[in-house]
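pinned: reference chain
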Amino acid sequence: MSHDRARAVIDLDAVRHNAGVLARAAEGARLMAVVKADGYGHGAVPVARAALEGGADRLAVATAAELEHLRDAGIRAVVQVFGPLTHAEFARVVAAGGEPTLWTPEAAGWAVSLGTPEQPVRVHLELDTGMGRLGVRAEDAASLADAADRPGVAVVGLMTHFACADETEGESAGFMREQLLRFTQAATGLAPRFPDAMLHTANSAATLRDARTHRDLVRCGIALYGCSPFMGDPAEHGLRPAMEWVSWLASVKTIRSRESVGYGRTHRAARGTRIGLVPVGYADGYARSLSNRARALVAGRPVPIVGTISMDQLTLDLGPEGPGEVGDEVVLMGARGDERVSAEELAGLLGTINYEITCSVGARVPRAIR
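pinned: its structure tokens
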């Protein structure tokens, strides 16, 4: 391999495959590929193109700058911008041909001021059915509808966002159905005013969990990248992880029993062993909290990370006679043979979710398309 400090290798065939899986799971509903946060760390532009090739017919981002990035790359697909946006950002979204999300009557007023009957601003109304974030309460939907039902504004979507779609057991497991009921009641009341508006509620988890949530459009993010929205095995849903994170052994040295490795002497060798140094650290997005907890793959074999992860380096216990020489590949996330270190595994060690793992791979780790 070329000795970049590290590379995040992006498998666009996996993205195309996952888009196809989700399009089929949506059972006739349209598929929106969510490519915000630089495609969850995978690269928004190549992922957007692959998703559109695989079965998506529209995209979603979070900010005006993310929309402009897609447009600058020549992507002309329909793009919804989730927001929230300032007045100036809202105008940039409209100028770039995006579909902003309205969450207050004030934002609806911005759309009114920017649109004309000949060229209306296409918007989505967000109803808060229990997420407690953006949007008007479902029972107050008429106030947002009144503000948006004006010349120069075309309401093309009514949406809500589930708080617990990924929870299939426990107290919150049924809350998705409660939210869906609230949304359905509110959308039914608005249907005479906006008969052509698409209804959309489902994220990745809901898309894979319950066909009743699909409505006209599903919005899929994490599953598009081959990660499980339920923090399980992605293969259970036919998904293929699209990112692997690889580096290399920059140094291999032998230490004696009881000698320590790294800051704070948090690891002391139980026996003489070989320590491999990898030029990746928390400045690259490999969390310091994984010190003495995670593992990597060397020659297809799992080896433990030992010692405190520093800003630019981490160390592996290769074993007294194990594989690993200077220049050998190290897989920090990904699979070799029957062994895999998954985003779900790393997230479990950190008490977080796989979304954060892929999004945290830093900007100084170059993305390589496979």
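why pinned: The first helix runs from residue 12 to 25. The two ends are 14 Å apart (CA to CA).
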